[in-house]
């Protein structure tokens, strides 16, 4: 066990420390979403919010076209075909002021806890819903008539069914009139799996061994194992939760939480004398994903495949070690779970305080099993008939010896520096006749990752920023009928289409996306239907076959003219994070490696300190998954001097590259730029810098240093290229592209080029006299899975050259930074 663990840990460190470059097993340890869709690029989103918060409980009734939503102090009935069509019905159900005062007296938080948080929202019968709320630390439940949708005047005590504390994990299902809930109940916060309402009430056992140890519940699911069962099996309910471990005794692992799966039989009636009103079918097992003891179960999804024996469970885990975080998705089969529950038990040895494998004789019928035909035929008609020796055994042997391991014994997907909070899965029949599982995964900061499982590898199709303000995704529900996914969070409910195929503009784009909902019909990428299976192109297996037209779109054709010594950026914006730019100059494959003046960044080719011989034709190809497509062709002309009629125009800024000692940690000196910027009127400059400094002081972290502002020379240097901080992902991080300029140690300026005469005011120039710096895209996308950041740049060609010093300076800085970032990524990935 311990050796096992150490091996896992070593693997974990290898992964996290070397940034996965040294070892690359079948699972990519930091999967990259193919495309990134920021909040402002979203389309076709429907939003619903009202005056309240915490839209976290959903009940979708697809046939009726209704999505019920439980929030804080309210229940909504929304039209599932369009949640914002204004036809919603609302039940306000707030805790009374007296209850809130009482709650305050209990020392609870009046901002979060002393409200009526709806926790349970389930269909009870044809006419009524059953609802429970925390009701300011004093839970209540009630039946709601779905026809007139009003709050009734009669309530039921809820403490057996609902937690007091809204932050406690809760899961509840109504199955055949029985209410199955699992949470920490009452003031003492004791964890329990209970059945209430219709059938005989049942609980878990507390003595002599707690069946549940500080459990925090995540979810539960019914699996109808009785359907077409040849052995007359019972339906089972599976519970997913975290729990304090009992079976490990190593001191450093004490009190660690482990993930568990437990199950009970639906027809359980409890024991007659022993385990009276207690489950006689409760069994639990470890659920492992990638690094045991360091993973926290965040969400689980049960994929109903139409037959119970092919049921698949998906689970999202958060892996934590020191300040490192990663998320993992694992996939489990019900047959693996069954094997574990039918395998050996664990036994507790009180003397050594150890859990060990139970090797003695197991009583018959097998403890914890459901009542089957075989048992019925031997006289055990229900759990009430079970013999005492079986129940006595079960009382102290509810933990299974084996662990439930994921399919393939490893995670399907891992993602560094990401918290996955919720997962939902849709099984889609693709055009190749195969079914693919599409995962929708919500993150802790309000994004949705959409991924597809192809041959036990996960391909993340896209990541979509669905909430402007970062907030955890708390619920995800898929409606096949509405072709929508509903997202619940603190601030609102969203309805998103399952696919947005028209985002893919070319056949290649459509194929490379590997979105099983989408296909290329010869003209557009659109929703694939089985009817036009023959006409449409899709390649789920490889993601690169079937497109006939090599150049689907005409590439961008542009002329660029610059002066000798200028820097020029030839923009080539790859829409896919998985694509690599390939530049071809004058028709030959490779870039001339002239003193490393060429650098390929994620958004283009930067040529620094241009010389006339750099003129030529530059073509940018996007290379992805073995496919190449031409995106842009530039004709670059480097002039010795400006054309005659513009001879009086001097550039306002002369950028001079200086040799420098390696001051960066990087092995190459080439990242280090020391540039002297000579400027018009020294006084003017100081004023501008001060202005900029003051206005941007609070806006960003010190990423750049600009040298001593009193000197006429400044040093531009990237201090940190590590943008791992999550806050940098948000759209509102750098809304104005401001730079913080802080005094730094500027190296003395080179004497070579010094203080040119003050140039005339900036003249307008023909738009082709731009060096491309103004044409950066609005958002810097994904950078090898590490970071994002935003650039608030002007749109293409609207800004004339040499607008103002500050603008030019900030553009220059950004350009440098971005180009350096790309080259330094591998070092920042730890
Ligand atoms: C409800 O929302 C508030 C903020 O809007 C948040 O602080 C709180 O944790 C949420 N409560 C639950 C139970 O989700
Ligand atoms: C929901 O909206 C659709 C289309 O707007 C409409 O046809 C349908 O009747 C509505 N359903 C309900 C339950 O109001
Ligand atoms: C919560 O309690 C604090 C201090 O007791 C009080 O200042 C605040 O107004 C209360 N807030 C609400 C919403 O009642
Ligand atoms: C559903 O349950 C409610 C509450 O117990 C009851 O009043 C109602 O008559 C039931 N409806 C049907 C159709 O059984
Ligand atoms: C809601 O409808 C039920 C029967 O459909 C009725 O008994 C009840 O009084 C109605 N409630 C209100 C508030 O109208
Ligand atoms: C059960 O068996 C019937 C008849 O063989 C079949 O039609 C049905 O699809 C089966 N159901 C499941 C869930 O396997
Ligand atoms: C089980 O049920 C059968 C038929 O319903 C009955 O004959 C038998 O006595 C029952 N056995 C017990 C132990 O109750
Ligand atoms: C680029 O310049 C060439 C000749 O210099 C001209 O024929 C062509 O139209 C120009 N292209 C663009 C896109 O301006
Ligand atoms: C491209 O070809 C032109 C002439 O055809 C030549 O002047 C130029 O130097 C070449 N550019 C590069 C980068 O080789």
TrEMBL record:
It comes from Geotrypetes seraphini (Gaboon caecilian). It comes from the Eukaryota. The keyword Transport does not apply. Its main location: membrane. This is Semaphorin-4G. Residues 34-498 form the Sema domain. It is a single-pass type I membrane protein. Residues 725-770 are annotated as: Disordered. Residues 754-766 have a biased composition (Pro residues). GO terms for molecular function: chemorepellent activity; semaphorin receptor binding. The chain crosses the membrane at residues 671-694. SMART domains: IG, PSI, Sema. Residues 555-637 form the Ig-like domain. One of its GO terms (cellular component) is plasma membrane. The gene is SEMA4G. It is found in: Membrane.
């Amino acid at each position: 066990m311990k050796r096992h663990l150490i091996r896992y840990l070593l693997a974990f460190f290898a992964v996290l420390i070397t940034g996965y470059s040294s070892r690359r097993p079948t699972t990519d340890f930091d999967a990259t979403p193919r495309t990134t869709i920021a909040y402002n690029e979203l389309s076709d989103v429907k939003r619903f919010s009202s005056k309240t918060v915490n839209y976290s409980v959903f009940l979708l009734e697809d046939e009726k076209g209704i999505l019920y939503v439980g929030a804080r102090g309210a229940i909504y009935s929304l039209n599932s075909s369009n949640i914002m069509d204004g036809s919603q019905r609302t039940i306000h159900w707030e805790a009374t002021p007296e209850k809130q005062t009482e709650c305050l007296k209990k020392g609870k938080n009046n901002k979060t806890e002393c409200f009526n948080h709806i926790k349970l929202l389930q269909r009870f019968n044809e006419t009524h819903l059953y609802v429970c709320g925390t009701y300011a630390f004093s839970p209540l439940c009630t039946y709601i008539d779905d026809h007139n949708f009003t709050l009734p005047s009669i309530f039921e005590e809820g403490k057996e069914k609902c937690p007091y504390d809204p932050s406690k994990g809760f899961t509840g299902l109504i199955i055949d009139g029985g209410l199955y809930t699992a949470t920490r109940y009452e003031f003492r916060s004791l964890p329990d799996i209970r059945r209430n309402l219709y059938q005989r009430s049942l609980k878990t056992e507390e003595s002599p061994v707690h069946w549940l140890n500080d459990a925090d519940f995540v979810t539960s699911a019914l699996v109808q194992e009785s359907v077409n069962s040849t052995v007359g099996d019972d339906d089972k309910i599976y519970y997913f939760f975290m729990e304090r471990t009992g079976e490990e005794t190593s001191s450093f692992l004490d009190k660690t939480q482990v993930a568990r799966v437990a199950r009970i039989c639906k027809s359980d009636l409890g024991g007659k004398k022993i385990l009276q009103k207690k489950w006689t079918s409760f069994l639990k097992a470890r659920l492992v994903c990638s690094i045991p003891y360091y993973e926290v179960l965040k969400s689980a999804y049960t994929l109903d495949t139409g037959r119970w024996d092919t049921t698949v469970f998906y689970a999202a885990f958060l892996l934590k070690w020191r300040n490192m975080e990663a998320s993992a998705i694992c996939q489990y089969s019900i047959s693996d779970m069954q094997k574990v529950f039918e395998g050996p038990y664990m036994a507790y040895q009180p003397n050594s305080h150890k859990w060990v494998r139970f090797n003695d004789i197991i009583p018959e019928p097998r403890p914890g099993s459901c009542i089957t035909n075989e048992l019925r035929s031997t006289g055990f008609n229900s759990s009430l008939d079970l013999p005492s020796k079986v129940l006595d055994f079960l009382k102290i042997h509810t933990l299974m010896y084996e662990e439930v391991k994921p399919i393939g014994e490893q995670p399907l997907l891992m993602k560094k520096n990401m918290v996955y909070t919720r997962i939902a899965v849709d099984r889609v029949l693709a055009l190749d006749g195969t079914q693919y599982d599409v995962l929708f995964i919500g993150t802790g900061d309000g994004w949705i990752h959409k991924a597809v499982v192809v041959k036990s590898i996960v391909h993340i199709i896209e990541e979509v920023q669905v909430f402007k303000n970062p907030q955890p995704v708390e619920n995800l529900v898929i409606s096949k009928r509405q072709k929508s996914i509903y997202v619940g969070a603190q601030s609102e409910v969203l309805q998103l289409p399952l696919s947005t195929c028209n985002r893919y503009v070319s056949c290649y784009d459509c194929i490379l996306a590997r979105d099983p909902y989408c296909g290329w019909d010869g003209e557009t990428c659109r929703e694939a239907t089985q009817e036009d299976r023959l006409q449409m192109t899709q390649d789920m297996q490889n993601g690169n076959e079937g497109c006939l037209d090599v150049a689907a779109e005409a590439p961008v054709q542009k002329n660029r003219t610059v002066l000798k010594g200028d820097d020029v950026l030839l923009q080539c914006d790859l829409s896919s994070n998985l694509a690599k730019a390939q530049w071809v100059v004058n028709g030959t494959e490779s870039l001339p490696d002239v003193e490393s003046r060429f650098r390929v960044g994620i958004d283009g080719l930067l040529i620094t300190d241009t010389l006339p011989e750099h003129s030529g034709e530059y073509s940018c190809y996007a290379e992805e998954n073995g496919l190449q497509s031409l995106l842009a062709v530039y004709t670059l002309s480097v002039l010795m001097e400006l054309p005659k009629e513009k001879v009086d125009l001097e550039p306002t800024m002369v950028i001079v590259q200086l040799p420098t000692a390696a001051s960066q940690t990087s092995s190459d000196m080439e990242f280090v730029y020391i540039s002297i910027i000579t400027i018009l009127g020294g006084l003017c400059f100081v004023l501008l810098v001060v202005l900029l400094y003051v206005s941007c002081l609070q806006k960003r972290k010190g990423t750049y240093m600009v040298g001593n502002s009193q000197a006429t020379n400044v040093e531009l240097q990237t201090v940190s290229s590590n943008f791992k901080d999550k806050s940098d992902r948000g759209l509102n991080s750098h809304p104005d592209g401001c730079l913080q300029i802080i005094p730094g140690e500027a190296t003395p300026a080179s004497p070579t080029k010094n203080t040119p005469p003050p140039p005339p005011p900036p003249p307008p120039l023909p738009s082709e006299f731009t060096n491309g710096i103004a044409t950066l895209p609005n958002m810097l996308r994904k950078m090898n899975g590490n970071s994002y950041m935003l650039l608030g740049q002007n749109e293409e060609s609207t800004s004339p050259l040499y607008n103002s010093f500050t603008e030019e300076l900030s553009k220059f800085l950004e350009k440098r930074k971005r180009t350096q970032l790309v080259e330094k990524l591998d070092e920042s990935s730890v």
